[in-house]
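Technical annex, item 7. During the second reporting period the consortium partners agreed on a shared format for inverse folding records so that results from different sites could be compared directly. Each record opens with the tokenized structure and is followed by the designed sequence. A conforming record, contributed by the partner at site C, is shown below for reference.
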């Protein structure tokens, strides 16, 4: 649901390095970044042929599988899906295949798997023990990455959207008539570039059916599954449709599937409030640590932040181009707010956030600008290619009111409950309100996964996208599940916390779980101490 390029130290990659360079005034060649039951709605799909693999990287193999566009028409139009396999490093003790979905929706699983060795400490980074015992299987879901990625905008339209000034004080960032015009242009573009039947087929239930086609092509009787964020919608769907095919399942940063499929506007409100809470946690920690540690705002970081956003909106900072880091541009209040929202959502990036805010306060907007440009998928509209797939999948799954009155009411509520972030959430479901390819046979019953082994549900206490009560709701919805909570701020826990890592490894490898309600403490206390004090 939210995605940034890998974050510090190994997690923000080039964006982190570039931001640090502009904070310190150095330069480098480092690259920058820019109504059916669950059992119905499908005829029996023919068994696929075994996958034909070809080497595509160190210990990596790639293949393509063709699946029905609509499983109600198994012999009809077929669509190709991209699949990657990381072979078990200890084949003599191999357990089987582990399928994973890294979230989004819209995040390519293949790209994520290819980059995992470079992103240790990133949510979803598998341990050596798991890599030894499993073939890790990445499938780009239909409409994503190498599986016919959805395209709705031209490069020029996307660039124009990225350059559009948004007003952080206005719900949705623009006057409502302009938002409606933008939604019309977006959805018209989707139909221009894609068939309506393909767009309608992008539902999570079809993704789950695709996974089972991959399982069959692999020759596996059962699969192990790890899903992160939106991947926790895919996992319960698969477990509900194919319970006898699940060996073990771990669901990290879980989504409330009842909200996802049933109440899109309350869903988005929950996301806004969750994100606001993590920003408030940064404010609270900065204030508690005092100016000796966190000098931003002189003990009133909220007031200083609001002043900075207002000032940048009135007079944006010009950003000089830095070779290999940023083409230059300008930083306004809306961009600074978006970068701050993303950085506040992970306590590991709080020092970078403090540094970037101090720099902007001193007239150097390059760090925040560089970090803003690294946001690739957000819960709210951002002009990126990934967001097009993100929107298409959500619209295929969601029930979104078509009448504008419901969206106005939801916008008012979001702004009232999330003072700073609520304007970002407002009207962010308009594309789905006028979606031109309704999915008429989507699964609507609760995703209980009845008949599968107990699932391990892992949730952060302060998650900026998937609030903790969603995890509690998921454990109640699933027929059998154990809840593990990680203290601290961040989206996704496996790969970032030693206690969680041990529990997830035990679940995936041995099928053993901690006691329900177990809590893992943070490995490192959160701090807002800046990495560098720019110009100070």
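Designed sequence (site C submission):
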């Amino acid at each position: 649901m939210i995605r940034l390029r890998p974050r510090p130290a190994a997690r923000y990659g080039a964006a982190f390095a570039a931001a640090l360079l502009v904070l310190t005034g150095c330069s480098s060649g480092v690259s920058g970044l820019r109504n059916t039951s669950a059992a119905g709605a499908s005829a029996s799909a023919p068994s696929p042929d075994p996958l034909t693999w070809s080497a595509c990287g160190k210990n990596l193999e790639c293949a393509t599988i063709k699946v029905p566009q609509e499983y109600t028409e198994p012999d009809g139009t077929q669509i190709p899906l991209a699949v990657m396999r990381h072979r078990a490093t200890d084949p003599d003790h191999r357990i089987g295949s582990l399928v994973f979905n890294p979230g989004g929706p819209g995040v390519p699983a293949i790209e994520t798997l290819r980059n995992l060795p470079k992103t240790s400490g990133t949510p979803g980074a598998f341990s050596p023990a798991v890599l030894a015992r499993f073939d890790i299987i990445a499938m780009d879901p239909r409409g994503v990455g190498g599986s016919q990625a959805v395209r709705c905008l031209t490069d020029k339209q996307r660039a124009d959207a990225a350059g559009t000034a948004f007003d952080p004080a206005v719900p949705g960032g623009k006057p409502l008539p302009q938002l409606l015009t933008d939604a019309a242009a977006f959805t018209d573009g989707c139909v221009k570039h894609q068939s309506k039947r393909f767009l309608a087929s992008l539902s999570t239930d079809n993704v789950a059916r695709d996974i089972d086609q991959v399982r069959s092509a692999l020759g596996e009787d059962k699969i192990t599954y790890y899903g992160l964020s939106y991947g926790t919608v895919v996992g319960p769907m698969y477990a509900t449709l194919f319970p006898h095919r699940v060996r073990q399942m771990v669901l990290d940063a879980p989504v409330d599937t009842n909200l996802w499929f049933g109440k899109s506007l309350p869903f988005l409100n929950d996301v806004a409030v969750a994100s606001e809470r993590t920003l408030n946690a940064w404010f609270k920690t900065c204030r508690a640590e005092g100016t000796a540690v966190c000098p931003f705002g002189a003990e009133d970081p909220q007031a200083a932040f609001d002043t900075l956003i207002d000032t940048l909106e009135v007079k944006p900072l010009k950003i000089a181009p830095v070779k290999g880091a940023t083409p230059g541009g300008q930083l306004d209040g809306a961009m600074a707010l978006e970068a701050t929202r993303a950085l506040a959502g992970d306590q590991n990036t709080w020092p970078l956030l403090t540094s970037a805010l101090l720099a902007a306060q001193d007239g150097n907007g390059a760090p925040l600008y560089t970090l803003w440009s690294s946001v690739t998928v957000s819960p709210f509209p951002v002009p990126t290619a990934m967001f097009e797939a993100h929107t298409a999948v959500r619209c295929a799954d969601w029930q979104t009111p078509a009448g504008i009155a419901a969206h106005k009411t939801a916008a008012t509520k979001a702004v009232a409950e999330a003072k700073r972030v609520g304007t970002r959430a407002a009207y962010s479901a308009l594309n789905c309100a006028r979606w031109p390819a309704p999915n008429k046979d989507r699964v609507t019953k609760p995703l209980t996964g009845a008949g599968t082994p107990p699932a391990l549900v892992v949730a952060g206490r302060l998650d900026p996208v998937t609030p903790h009560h969603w995890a509690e709701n998921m454990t109640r919805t699933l027929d059998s599940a154990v809840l593990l909570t990680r203290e601290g701020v961040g989206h996704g826990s496996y790969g970032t916390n030693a206690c969680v890592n041990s529990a997830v490894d035990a679940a995936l490898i041995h099928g053993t779980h901690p006691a329900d309600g177990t809590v893992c403490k943070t490995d490192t206390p959160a701090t807002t101490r800046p990495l560098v004090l720019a110009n100070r």
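DSSP finds 20 helices and 14 strands in the chain. Residues 2-14, 20-42 have pLDDT under 50 and may be disordered. All partners now use this format for quarterly exchanges.
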